[in-house]
Write a sequence for this structure.
């Protein structure tokens, strides 16, 4: 069975904004407004939902968030849903979503990362609909570095479209942009050089598979549940195998090591042809680095493991399409990821 891709967006289409996890505090409302204006400048109409409150760790009660997300994903007039960002406990939505209704609906693009992995990865696994991991709405005003693409480019692409992204080999290692003080910031501060790193050995990597993955801290809580069954997805949609990607948002290396061990034992990586690991600013411990944590947990897979990929919480962002056919190439002189919406 083929992966289903939503219809490409066209000027005049509507994009829904809702917060399935955390909302937007009042002091950051101007950054949200800047991001919305940038999307509107591309010719889209933005529809903002009611679940946006940023006064706590969730934007609204779980039932309200689930209902609003379901309504947007099943409204044929809304062609994409983009949250302001992630959060902490989107997991409470999963048993409340109407999965049969979502499967039956015309596919809609969903974009996000971090806690949005909790929703998007199950959406792809359970419905066969592609989703975009890599940007949030609040990141959208940033100018995209050369070699990368924006989610706004991906959602306009037709089925069969192929695109290649090249890492800019610079990232942000210190500080962050204060959206309250500088709501219109548009330039990434990429203050540190850095390339992709092969963790499992030497030699080049050239491997293909369907992309699936997300934030380690979030997905690890879904292991052993029906919401994270990559083996069934591979049997149905990816007989060629998977390119699995994971990234650590902020937990220390020992926690990430435990999380990845648990995900491996639960079968999350069983059909992986390779593993991509996002660059992270999460802390090491006195006896274990983040790289060592990954290798300790995933080394037994005996597949290529490529780390420091721009698919995590460290700017800039290399969007990945869950469900797309991917090819990763990494040598001493060249790194690239090609995705085909096929």
């Amino acid at each position: 069975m083929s992966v289903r891709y939503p219809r490409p967006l066209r000027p005049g289409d509507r994009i829904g904004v809702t917060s399935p996890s955390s909302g937007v505090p009042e002091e950051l409302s101007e950054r949200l407004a800047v991001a919305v204006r940038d999307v509107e400048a591309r010719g889209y109409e933005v529809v903002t939902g009611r679940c946006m409150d940023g006064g706590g760790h969730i934007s609204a009660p779980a039932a309200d968030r689930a209902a609003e997300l379901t309504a947007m994903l099943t409204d044929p007039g809304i062609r994409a849903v983009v949250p302001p960002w992630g959060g902490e406990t989107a997991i409470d939505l999963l048993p409340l979503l109407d999965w049969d209704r979502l499967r039956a609906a015309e596919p809609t693009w969903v974009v996000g990362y971090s806690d949005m992995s909790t929703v998007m990865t199950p959406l792809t696994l359970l419905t066969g609909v592609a989703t975009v991991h890599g940007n949030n709405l609040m990141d959208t005003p940033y100018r995209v570095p050369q070699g990368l693409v924006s989610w706004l480019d991906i959602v306009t692409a037709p089925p069969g479209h192929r695109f290649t992204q090249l890492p800019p080999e610079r990232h942000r290692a210190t500080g962050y942009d204060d959206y309250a003080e500088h709501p219109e910031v548009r330039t990434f501060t990429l203050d540190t050089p850095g390339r992709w790193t092969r963790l499992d050995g030497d030699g080049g990597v050239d491997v293909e598979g369907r992309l699936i993955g997300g934030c380690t801290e979030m997905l690890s809580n879904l292991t052993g549940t029906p919401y994270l069954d990559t083996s069934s997805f591979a049997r149905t949609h990816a007989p060629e195998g998977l390119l699995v990607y994971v990234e650590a948002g902020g937990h220390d290396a020992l926690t990430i090591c435990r999380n990845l061990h648990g995900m491996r034992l639960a079968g999350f990586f069983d059909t992986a042809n390779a593993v991509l690991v996002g660059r992270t600013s999460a802390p090491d411990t006195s006896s274990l680095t983040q790289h060592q944590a990954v290798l300790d947990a995933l080394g037994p897979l005996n597949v290529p493991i490529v780390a420091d990929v721009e698919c995590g919480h460290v700017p800039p962002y290399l969007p990945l399409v869950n469900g797309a056919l991917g090819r990763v190439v990494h040598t001493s002189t060249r790194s690239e990821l090609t995705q085909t919406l096929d």
Notes: The chain has a mean pLDDT of 97. The longest strand covers residues 205-215. The radius of gyration is 19 Å. The longest helix spans residues 29-41.
